[in-house]
Design goal:
3 domains; Rossmann fold; globular; alpha/beta; binds iron/sulfur cluster; 21 strands; five-stranded mixed β-barrel; binds 5'-deoxyadenosine; OB fold (Dihydrolipoamide Acetyltransferase, E2P)
Length: 461
């Protein structure tokens, strides 16, 4: 029999990227191999994101496109997973407008993928397997995984989010906060080190909530300090942290543990206190500015990046200008900026009905914010020209094989002339040019001793 192929579309955040790696691992364990294009696949999975409307629309656009492909290949199985699967409206929409989709499964039961595929084989009805709320994180231990990189690995530490920011769908799609046991995380990290991985990124919607739900008293700072001791791992990152409850202990831990990278991604969302309160963010502008100050004092050379929403329901021009002023004051190294997108079922979506600000004006606000942020980045990036920095080399860049991309500890992107053999190695480079979103650099010396080659299909546990 010819080998069956799979293709996974991944939308959204790093948690989804990680979930896709696990789905790929499960499929490969079942004997599937990766297809390079969806048209050649026997199983196609859409691992979706629900954070903004646009993400959802692009998923349905692509599902629609596959309809004609499936007519040519009737045995093709199509499934929808991820955050959209957790929204009841999605299932309705699939039944009505996308009958060529065979199955829907949620974010809490990825481990059931093999069973679901078996059920799909026996029926021509839509198979729906969505758990309303998160199960025991134990269920997700010991799953196979096909990691996207052999050098950098994502490691889940906490699932879900309890913060209920009023604009956000995540607490509804990903459920309550559930921390993995520290022993399980450390075992995974040690195994990654053994396999040759050099960098780990600890993942969670809210990593600084880590541990509060565990029987033992532990937190993200303790976890970082424990991973610091794992031989072979050189750089440690974590995503995403909430400015609220970003403790002094955590800042000290980053300062004192040399493997923990000095990059702080701290989504501010707005620079206005009334809006922050309406968003249910649990901090004020003043608190945020003080946090940034504290980090810069304690961790020299730290980069600070953020997420910002403009046009939250009821945001006035004055309130928006508070965000501009905060951006000017903080001087972020990078900012991901979004127009507020109403998410059905969230409190803020109801407030949009009474919002007098038209979308056009919100688009204009986004543009003003971006212009300001880009000019800040251009100016500040210039100051790094001439610096010597250590980078982890990723390999050929997406656009041009003659150019290698690399990241600094502060997560700055550096483009270098291609140098085969440097993939996955650390190198010293000099920054020669600064742009708004990246730097150019030149190689300074030879690589450190090569690590063991990474295994691609890894069984954890
Ligand atoms: N509309 C626009 N942006 C949103 N984000 C989350 N929910 C929404 C929404 N409804 C943004 C926030 C968050 C980032 C991941 O996405 O800025 O930090
Ligand atoms: Fe959404 Fe807020 Fe939770 Fe982040 S902290 S996932 S923005 S609810």
């Amino acid at each position: 029999m010819e080998q069956q192929r799979y293709y996974i579309y991944t939308y959204g955040c790093q948690m989804n990227e990680r979930d896709s790696e696990i789905m790929a691992g499960l499929l490969e364990e079942m004997g599937y191999v990766a297809a390079s294009r969806p048209e050649e696949a026997d199983v196609v999975i859409f691992n979706t994101c629900a954070i903004r409307e646009r993400a959802e629309e692009s998923v349905f656009g692509e599902i629609g496109r596959l309809k004609a492909v499936k007519e040519e290949r009737p045995h093709m199985t199509i499934g929808l997973a991820g955050c959209m699967a957790q929204e009841p409206v999605t299932i309705e929409r699939i039944r009505r407008h996308a009958p060529h989709v065979n199955f829907v499964f949620g974010t809490h039961n990825i481990h059931e993928l093999p069973d679901i595929l078996a059920r799909v084989r026996d029926t021509d009805q839509l198979v729906v397997d969505v758990w309303k709320s998160g199960g025991d994180p134990e269920l997700l231990e010991h799953l196979p995984s096909r990691r996207a990189s052999g050098v950098k690995a994502w490691v889940n530490i906490i699932y879900g989010c309890d913060k209920y920011c009023t604009y956000c769908i995540v607490p509804y799609t990903r459920g309550r906060e559930r921390s993995r046991r520290p022993e399980a995380i450390l075992r995974e990290v040690r195994q990654l080190a053994y396999q040759g991985y050099k960098e780990v990124t600890l993942l969670g919607q809210n990593v600084n909530a880590y541990g509060h739900d565990l029987p033992e008293k532990t937190d993200l700072a303790d976890l970082l300090a424990a991973i610091q001791k794992v031989e072979g791992i050189r750089w440690i990152r974590y995503l995403t942290s909430h400015p609220w409850q970003f403790t002094d202990k955590l800042i000290d831990t980053v300062a004192e543990n040399d493997k923990v990278c000095e990059h702080f991604h701290l989504p501010v969302q707005s620079g206005n206190n009334r809006i922050l309160r309406k968003m249910n963010r649990h901090y004020t502008r003043e608190y945020y500015l003080e946090l940034v100050e504290k980090i810069r004092r304690r961790v020299p050379g730290a980069s600070i990046t953020t997420d910002i929403i403009v046009g939250f329901p009821g945001e006035t021009e004055e309130e928006f200008q508070d965000t501009l002023r905060l951006v000017e004051e903080v001087q972020f190294d990078n900012a991901f900026t979004f127009i507020y997108s109403p998410r059905p079922g969230t409190p803020a979506a109801l407030w949009l009905k009474k919002d007098p600000t038209p979308l056009e004006e919100k688009k204009e606000r986004l543009q003003r914010l971006n212009e300001l942020q880009y000019s800040i980045q251009r100016r500040n990036n210039q100051r790094l020209v001439g610096d010597e920095v250590e980078v982890l080399v990723e390999g050929p860049s997406k656009k041009d094989a003659q150019v290698y991309s690399a990241r600094t500890r502060t997560h700055r992107l550096v483009l270098l002339p291609a140098r085969p053999g440097m993939e996955g190695r650390f190198a010293r480079v000099r920054i020669t040019e600064a742009q708004t979103f990246y730097f150019k650099g030149e190689w300074l010396d030879q690589p450190a001793a090569a690590g063991r080659p990474a295994l691609s299909l890894a069984h954890e546990g």
